[in-house]
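Notes from the 1:1 (GR / supervisor)

We went over the backlog. Supervisor wanted to see one worked example end to end before approving the batch request, so GR pasted a single chain during the call. The sequence is below; no edits were made to it. Supervisor asked that the structure be written out right there so they could see what the output format looks like.
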Amino acid sequence: AAMALAAFAASTASATDLYSTGVKVPVGASLHATLEAGSTMVFSTTDGSSIVNTCTASTVEGEVDSTGGANVTSAIDALTWGPTCSVTTDTLTNGKLHIDRDGTVRSTISVITLNIGISCRYGTGGGTDVGTLNTGKLAINAVIKEQEPKAFLCPDTIKWVANYRFTSPHDLTA
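Structure output shown during the call:
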């Protein structure tokens, strides 16, 4: 019985949940984050030699799918860009967010297009570390890969840097 109790305690200690104002965020809760006021989101070449796109507005919306496991998952219901982007930017596949207990955020199966004269497709595939959640802020600093069908003039990878603030719940933590 003591071993079973110890195993249960160990499994619950490693479970991941999200909190807002100290209260556990339940499955089904809506998440909403916008680009921090006054900040600019940047897509650049990974070596930093060229800016591919900038936006001064972007929104991520989703709903918590699961909690209490190795990470919290949230379907991305909307991933919007602009209207103040330097090139047309569209989301083709919303994907999912996975938030680890330490605040590491990964994205899976999200795909966007950047129209830089040609349409370049970039995505997070089976899982890409995109940033960190820390008390209501999501700091994005990720390298994302070009997706099929690849275009000859598109960079193979681009760097995505942005700072989002959760507006619902406003002080989200892992």
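Supervisor's comment: Helices lie at 2-13.
Batch request approved.
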